[in-house]
Each structure stands twice: as structure tokens, then as C-alpha cells.
């Protein structure tokens, strides 16, 4: 009897602790709230229950034993979502041209210290795969934890990373020419299967999805690859195609139509030329911003026409057209400065609201996680940034970061 | 009489023609105009003038008024609520080397690097990465000889208000060559250049041991001194030889006279003609640095590299300028005492163990002269944005503006021409539609030498 009681007591204790950790109720009052779903609440309040937003508005009902955060003078934004971040890139060598069965999550360090990113207001990222493969693998959306806390996976399989155009053709580290394909030498080994031209890249890309045409040795070799590709196609996983030139963007739209998968263009320096077509086909764009607020200046712009800065023209033009645009820096070291990268485009006539949407709700929508993150709405995770205006500073100063109802950075 | 008259007419016509031509030319270049604006940041002793103006005659600023009083004969440019700042300066850039790879090879690559077949590198990847040690001393190369003046990297920075840049050869070599200081827009290269050479580039930044690089740099200077000694010795010997020759000549004349009297005397000891040492242009450039004619622009980032640079300066008594200088704030007192300027960049704020360190602010606090650079060909266009980032982390607006204008001009040695809106300086200025460094501010017009070179309309 005594034993049973002890066990029961233990179980209750554990449950109680668990409940206490997650069921903390927090109320934030008196802050200016930018919800990013089109509303700005002056002097609003947020009720947070179990890490989720239970109520948001001018005033909320305050339950008993709720922790109250008085936030007068603070301006609240949802946590930023970085649409491209290669946290795993160092781990992957470039000796294969397609590896759709690899997942970025396999090499993502869940216990890593990402304070640097959180300090810049980035609470969630799409962890992608490196660009230098034709099909480089599946990326995931993760949410950073606080110091000493593990990161959380928001969506395990968020998209399939593909490179078309120049990136996929003989990447910088390899000078290997593809062996001609024959019965003796099928698509094997993949080391030798680098397309030598852009046309070759499309051909291989198309051939990879014709699962029923494989037979014999080829089918055996392609078993894993085709299984993961088939799964991606059946699940309608978004295809993140990295390409810059208008011709490549056009081709990838056609490819996505054939495969029946949603399309996200990454990079897309010349996307503004096809803005109408992208809008028609519901294509979203992760526009690469060629801006580095801190860190090495770019050596040269990858694409420019007669001195016109394409990157400065592209993003405002796409936003004007009404395309879902996410702004992402071109290198990882700029990811903590996401707000600066986005605000750079302010002087080209784009509103601040639109630019902040491009680093919050838009990327969340692209990767299918908008029901959890990206804006401050009822039922979503309580990832909140506390900004404050300071004199002499150009931008708002980030003071606190809350992830799922807990302040993890101050 | 007749011929005299023709000469007179000829002279008259010639003089009138030349006068006409001079008048025509001066009418073209000596455009007088008066600029009036709401706010003028002069960068001259941190002065900010409200509702003032300045008079431009030709390519120079004639006078600056605290209260606008445009003269009658001048054309008035009323900028209303606009803001005027001096033309900005990129203190170290690779503009004009845009088309090439990052490492511009001024020497051809070694043959084994070219001949190594690709498949060889596939099976022995380690072998493929073997590179011959690059020629590390190229002091004699001039950036002005290789730069492409019509490159887009000369025109693009104008759109953010950068009017002047110090252009270097993009290398990481120990001795990188001679840089020059140029305005970014003009008709001909000769008009473009403000100062050539502006500095000799050195790099102490290396993956290997810092002391090794220091030793190599020390050797460069010691070799040059040795070279100078050799020449001095040669000159001395030559003088001696010429003297002895002259003596010999006198003697032989004497001897001819004496020959009649005496016979069979031993001849005087002969001085052999000294050999002229081989000229070495690298050493010549280093000697100019040693003489203080050209400042040594030393790239050093970490504290060890900076200390090595200071050691070189003390050893050879040369003028140095530090580039990069990320950890220079650790020896800021020393730098201020020795009046060593720092050209910071390309990072505006450092990340040190998760903390942001505003090293520019720290240097300025200790009265070290700081400029800012992009160290790249396309990066100049981001300088104001990067300094805006530094402002967010503690720099003030005026400090940031000084870093990009007057400080840079002083460090480059062209403060008598550019860097501030002051009487007597070149009329290089930028018209903004908002406060400088504000993220929504756009550059509306850029003037260089009193000429409109960029307009966003």
C-alpha cells in the first residue's frame, strides 16, 4: 500500500512539474502590437496559455495566478522567420549530384547554441541543403531554443531543395565530366553524373521523376532515390528551386507544373521579368538580398545589367506585383541581421509593413507552417519580439525575445 | 616698315584669337552658382549649418555662409528642404578590378598549376590543392596601370554619394603594389586621379605564423637599405675612380714631359672601374617608403599583426596606416600617441564571443583617426548602410559622417582638395532627401568638381 502511494505520489509530482512548465499563463499588457496579419493594436494585450496565444486584442481576460508582463513602451512583433539558412552546409561534400533522400535535419545540431540568431530576432529558420547539387535534399523548419535548451522541429519535411541553372552544372569543387550513359554505365555512380550543361540538368531532373521507366540495375540503384522523390511528389512537398536567370525561372515553373508540386524560387535575381507569370501560377519567391550590413562586402554582384542594380529592382517589383516574397540574405552570417537586410529596401519605395511581412508571415506560408508561426494570432505559438524605440538609433532596439511564452533572451 | 606692320597684325589676330578661346573655355568651366539648402553638414569642425549656403566658382567652393546670401551674378540652386553633405570617400577599394577574379594575377600562373590535368586532381585531391608560393613582393606594380576606368564599379557608388576612392590592387601578397586616390567620375583618367601613388600596400595578414610574415617584411626593408648602401658605395667608388683617372691624365701629361728626363719608373697603382649594381624597381619603391614620401598602408587585423606593424614602424621610422584594424582598439592609446590612423572595415561592428564590439567608436573615443573602407570592388555602394549599422550600435551621426569624409581625406593626404564643404576645397557634394544614414534616405544629386554627375530623376 505504502509503495503504491509512493509511486502515485511520484507520478503526480512528475506530472505536476510537467504541467507547471508548459501550462504557465502569461499576460502581456500595454504594448503596441504589430500582428502582421494586417492589424496594429495600440495598447493591446496578449494572453498566452501553454506557449500558445489564447487571446489577443485591446483587452483580454486575466485569469488567476497569471504572470503579468507590463510592456508599456514596447513594440511587439512576431518572431522572424529566416527563409534560407545553411546551418548544415559544412557537413556535406559535393561529390553527388542528387541526394533527395538526405534530410537537412540529419545534420542539424539541435543542441547547438543559436543565441546569435535569437539576438537578432530570428526565432525560426528553414534549414536548407547546400545549393551545389541538382537535387540536394529535404529541408526542415526549426525553431531555436534558448541558451542551453534544445531547438524544436516545427516541420520535419518542409521542402525539397533543387538547383537549376548555373549552380547545378559542374559545381566549383569538381571538374569531373559526366560519363556517357549506356547499359554498361547507367546513372551510376552519381559522382560522375554531373550535368555538363544547363540542358543536361533539365534532362536529368525530368528523367529522375520517370520512376516507371527504370529497370534492372538502374532500378535497384535508384530504389532509395525514387522512393523519396515519389514520396515528395505524393505529399506535394514544395520544390525550392535555386536559380537566378529568367530563363531558368521559366523552366522551373514548367517543371513544377508537370510534377504537380508547389514551387518556391530561391535567389531569383531576374524574377521581376516574369512577375506576371509567377503570380498566375502561385509561385512564391525567396528573394536573395545582396546586402551585408555587417561582414565582408560582396566582391561583385553576380548579375548586373549596364550598371543597374538588379537586386534593388527585383524585390520592390515583386512585392508590388503581390507575389509572396520572403527576403533572405545571400550568406549565413547575415541571417542574424535579417531586419537590417529587409529594411535596406525601404528606400526603394517599399513600405515597412510589407518588408517585415517578407521576414515573418510570408516565409511561414511558403513552408506550410503559417498555422503555427509567422504572425501574432489566436492559436499560434507565442514567439514574440519586444522592441523599444531609442533616441539616436535608426531602427528599433530589440530588448527581449520570447519563444513559446518563455523569455529566452534579454 | 611693311614687314613690321604684318607682324603687328599677325600678333593682334593671334592674341585676340587666344583671348576668345580663353574666354570660351573659362565660360564653360567657370560656372558660378550658389547652393542653398535647409541643412548643410560641412564636416569641417563638426559644423552643421541650418538655412545656409555656399558659393561655387568653377570646380571650387569659394565661400560658405552661415546665412544664405546669394550674390546677384551667380545662378541660384535652391534645394529647399534638402540636406547637403560632402562627397563620401572609400578609403580602400578595388574599384576597376571588377571583371577579374578576386585575386588578380599580375604574374602568369606557374606552369605546373596550368598543366595539372583535372582527373589527376580527382584521384589525388590533396595534390590538386598544391599551389606554388605566389610572388609575394610586387612593390613596383601600380594600380593605376591596370585599373579599368570605365568599369561599372566606378559609376555605381555615386548612387549612394561616394565620390572618391583610394584604389588598390586586390592581392593578399606581402607587398601588394602602389595604390592611387581618384574621383569616381570624370572624363579622362588624368582628371580622375587626385594622388598617385597614394600609398604602398603591405599585408601582414596570413594564415601562417605572424612572426614569419613580420620577418619577411623586415627583410624587404633591410634588403632595400642594403641596396641603397650598395648604390652609395658605387657612387663613392665611381667618384674615386673618376678622380684617379683625372690624376692619371695629369700624370701622363706630366710624364710625357718628364719622359725626356727619366726612364723606367714604376706606374702608379691603378683603380679599376666600379661595376654599376643592377637597378631594382621594387627596392626603389621601398626606399621611397623609407624616405617618408609614400605612406605604408599595412593590412593587419588581429592584435599580433597590428603589433608587428607597429614594430616595423618603430624600426624603420616610416609613416604607416593600418587597414582592417579590427583589434586596434586594444592598443588605441599607443596609436593615438604615435598618430597612426586606422582605415577600418569592411566590418562595421565586430562579433566577439557573441558580443557586438563597436571598434570604430572605441578608436574614436581614444582620439585615433579612423576612416572606413570596403576593400572590394562592388562593396563601396554599401558603405553608408554599413555605417548606419554602426550608428545603431553606438556611433553618432556626425562621427559616422566624419569617418567617411574629412577623416578619410586627412588619412589619404588629400584634405586640401576634398573631404569637407569649406572655402577653397573642390566642389564635391551630395544632395539627400533626408538625414544622412537614415534607411529611407535617397541620394538625389551628386556634384563632382562643380559638375552634376548623378541625378536620380
Would you kindly provide a written description of the structure presented here, covering whatever features stand out?
The complex is a heterodimer of chains A (410) and B (457). With 410 residues, chain A is an alpha/beta fold. Chain A has two domains: 17-78 and 390-409, Urease, subunit C, domain 1; 80-373, TIM Barrel. Chain A has helices at residues 2-22, 115-119, 198-208, 216-221, 223-234, 246-259, 275-280, 310-321, 338-343, 352-357, 361-366, and strands at residues 25-34, 40-49, 52-57, 67-70, 74-78, 80-85, 122-127, 135-143, 152-163, 239-243, 263-267, 284-289, 325-329, 384-388, 397-403, 406-409. In chain A, strands 1, 2, 3, 4, 5, 14, 15 and 16 form an eight-stranded mixed beta sheet that branches. Chain A has an eight-stranded mixed beta sheet with strand order 6-7-8-9-10-11-12-13. Chain A is globular, with a radius of gyration of 23 Å. The N and C termini of chain A lie far apart (49 Å). Chain B is α/β, with parallel strands linked by helices. Chain B folds into two domains: 27-86 and 420-457, Urease, subunit C, domain 1 (Roll), CATH 2.30.40; 88-251 and 273-418, TIM Barrel (Alpha-Beta Barrel), CATH 3.20.20.140. Chain B contains 15 helices and 20 strands. Chain B has an eight-stranded mixed beta sheet, sandwiched between helices. Chain B has a six-stranded mixed beta sheet with strand order 3-2-7-18-19-20, with no helix packed on it. In chain B, strands 5-4-1-6 form a four-stranded mixed beta sheet, with no helix packed on it. Residues 19-29 and 100-117 of chain B have low confidence and may be disordered. The chains are: A alpha/beta (410), B alpha/beta (457). Chains A and B meet through helix 2 of A and helix 3, helix 6 and helix 13 of B.
Amino acid at each position: 500500500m505504502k509503495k503504491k502511494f509512493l509511486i502515485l505520489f511520484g507520478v503526480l509530482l512528475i506530472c505536476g512539474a510537467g504541467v507547471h512548465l508548459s501550462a504557465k499563463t502569461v499576460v502581456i499588457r500595454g504594448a503596441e502590437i504589430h500582428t502582421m496579419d494586417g492589424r496594429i493594436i495600440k495598447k493591446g494585450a496578449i494572453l498566452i496559455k501553454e506557449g500558445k496565444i489564447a487571446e489577443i486584442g485591446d483587452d483580454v481576460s486575466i485569469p488567476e495566478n497569471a504572470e503579468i508582463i507590463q510592456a508599456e513602451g514596447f513594440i511587439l512583433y512576431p518572431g522572424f522567420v529566416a527563409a534560407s539558412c545553411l546551418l548544415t552546409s559544412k557537413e556535406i561534400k559535393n561529390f553527388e549530384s542528387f541526394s533527395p533522400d538526405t534530410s537537412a535535419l540529419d545534420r542539424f545540431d539541435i543542441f547547438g547554441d543559436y543565441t546569435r540568431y535569437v539576438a537578432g530576432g530570428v526565432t525560426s529558420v528553414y534549414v536548407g541543403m547546400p545549393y551545389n547539387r541538382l537535387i540536394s535534399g529535404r529541408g526542415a523548419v526549426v525553431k531555436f531554443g534558448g541558451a542551453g535548451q534544445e531547438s524544436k522541429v516545427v516541420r520535419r519535411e518542409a521542402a525539397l531543395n533543387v538547383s537549376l541553372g548555373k549552380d547545378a552544372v559542374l559545381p566549383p569543387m569538381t571538374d569531373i565530366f559526366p560519363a556517357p550513359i549506356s547499359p554498361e554505365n547507367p546513372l551510376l555512380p552519381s559522382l560522375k553524373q554531373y550535368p555538363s550543361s544547363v540542358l543536361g540538368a533539365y534532362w536529368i531532373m525530368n528523367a529522375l521523376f520517370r520512376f516507371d521507366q527504370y529497370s534492372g540495375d538502374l532500378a535497384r540503384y535508384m530504389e532509395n532515390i525514387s522512393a523519396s522523390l515519389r514520396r515528395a511528389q505524393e505529399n506535394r512537398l514544395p520544390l525550392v528551386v535555386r536559380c537566378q536567370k529568367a530563363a531558368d525561372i521559366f523552366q522551373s515553373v514548367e517543371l513544377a507544373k508537370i510534377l504537380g508540386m508547389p514551387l518556391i524560387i530561391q535567389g531569383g535575381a531576374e524574377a521581376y521579368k516574369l512577375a506576371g507569370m509567377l503570380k498566375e501560377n502561385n509561385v512564391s519567391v525567396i528573394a536573395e538580398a545582396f546586402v551585408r550590413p555587417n561582414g565582408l562586402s560582396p566582391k561583385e554582384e553576380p548579375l548586373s545589367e549596364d550598371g543597374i542594380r538588379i537586386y534593388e529592382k527585383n524585390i520592390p517589383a515583386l512585392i508590388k506585383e503581390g507575389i509572396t516574397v520572403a527576403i533572405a540574405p545571400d550568406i549565413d552570417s547575415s541571417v542574424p541581421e535579417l531586419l537590417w537586410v529587409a529594411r535596406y529596401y525601404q528606400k526603394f519605395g517599399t513600405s515597412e509593413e510589407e518588408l517585415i511581412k517578407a521576414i515573418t508571415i510570408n516565409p511561414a506560408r511558403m513552408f506550410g507552417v503559417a498555422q503555427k508561426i509567422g504572425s501574432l494570432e489566436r492559436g499560434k505559438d507565442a514567439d514574440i519580439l519586444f522592441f523599444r524605440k531609442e533616441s539616436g538609433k535608426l531602427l528599433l532596439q530589440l530588448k527581449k525575445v520570447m519563444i513559446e511564452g518563455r523569455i529566452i533572451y534579454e | 616698315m611693311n614687314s613690321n606692320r604684318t607682324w603687328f597684325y599677325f600678333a593682334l589676330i593671334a592674341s585676340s584669337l587666344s583671348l576668345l578661346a580663353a574666354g570660351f573655355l573659362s565660360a564653360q568651366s567657370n560656372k558660378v552658382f550658389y547652393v542653398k539648402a535647409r541643412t548643410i553638414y560641412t564636416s569641417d569642425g563638426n559644423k552643421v549649418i541650418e538655412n545656409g549656403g555656399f558659393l561655387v566658382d568653377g570646380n571650387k567652393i569659394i565661400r560658405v555662409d552661415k546665412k544664405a546670401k546669394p550674390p546677384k551674378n551667380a545662378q541660384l540652386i535652391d534645394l529647399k528642404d534638402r540636406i547637403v553633405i560632402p562627397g563620401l570617400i572609400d578609403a580602400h577599394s578595388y574599384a576597376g578590378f571588377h571583371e577579374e577574379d578576386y585575386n588578380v594575377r599580375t604574374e602568369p600562373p606557374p606552369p605546373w598549376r596550368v598543366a595539372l590535368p583535372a582527373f589527376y586532381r580527382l584521384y589525388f585531391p590533396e595534390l590538386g590543392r598544391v599551389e606554388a608560393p605566389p610572388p609575394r613582393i610586387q612593390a613596383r606594380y601600380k594600380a593605376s596601370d591596370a585599373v579599368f576606368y570605365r568599369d561599372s564599379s566606378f559609376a555605381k557608388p555615386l548612387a549612394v554619394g561616394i565620390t572618391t576612392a583610394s584604389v588598390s590592387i586586390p592581392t593578399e601578397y606581402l607587398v601588394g603594389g602602389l595604390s592611387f586616390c581618384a574621383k569616381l567620375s570624370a572624363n579622362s583618367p588624368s582628371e580622375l586621379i587626385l594622388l598617385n601613388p597614394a600609398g604602398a600596400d603591405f599585408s601582414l595578414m596570413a594564415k601562417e605564423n605572424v612572426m614569419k610574415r613580420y620577418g619577411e617584411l623586415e627583410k624587404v626593408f633591410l634588403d632595400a637599405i642594403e641596396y641603397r648602401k650598395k648604390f652609395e658605395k658605387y657612387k663613392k667608388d665611381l667618384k674615386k675612380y673618376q678622380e684617379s683617372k683625372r690624376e692619371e691624365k695629369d700624370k701622363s701629361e706630366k710624364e710625357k714631359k718628364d719622359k725626356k728626363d727619366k726612364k723606367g719608373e714604376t706606374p702608379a697603382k691603378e683603380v679599376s672601374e666600379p661595376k654599376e649594381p643592377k637597378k631594382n624597381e621594387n627596392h626603389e619603391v621601398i626606399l621611397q617608403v623609407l624616405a617618408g614620401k609614400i605612406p605604408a598602408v599595412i593590412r593587419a587585423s588581429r592584435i599580433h599583426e597590428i603589433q608587428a606593424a607597429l614594430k616595423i614602424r618603430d624600426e624603420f621610422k616610416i609613416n604607416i596606416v593600418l587597414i582592417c584594424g579590427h583589434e586596434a582598439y586594444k592598443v588605441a592609446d599607443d596609436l593615438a600617441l604615435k598618430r597612426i590612423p586606422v582605415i577600418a572595415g569592411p566590418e562595421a561592428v565586430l562579433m566577439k564571443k557573441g558580443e557586438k564590439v563597436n571598434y570604430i567608436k572605441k578608436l574614436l573615443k581614444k582620439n585615433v583617426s579612423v576612416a572606413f573602407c570596403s576593400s572590394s570592388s562592388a562593396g563601396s555602394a554599401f558603405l553608408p548602410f554599413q555605417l548606419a549599422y554602426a550608428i545603431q550600435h553606438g556611433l553618432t551621426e556626425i562621427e559616422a559622417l566624419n569617418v567617411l569624409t574629412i577623416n578619410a581625406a586627412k588619412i589619404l593626404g588629400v584634405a586640401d582638395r576634398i573631404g569637407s564643404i569649406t572655402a577653397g576645397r573642390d566642389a564635391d557634394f551630395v544632395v539627400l532627401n533626408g538625414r544622412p544614414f537614415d534607411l529611407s534616405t535617397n541620394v538625389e544629386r551628386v556634384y563632382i568638381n562643380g559638375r552634376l554627375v548623378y541625378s536620380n530623376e
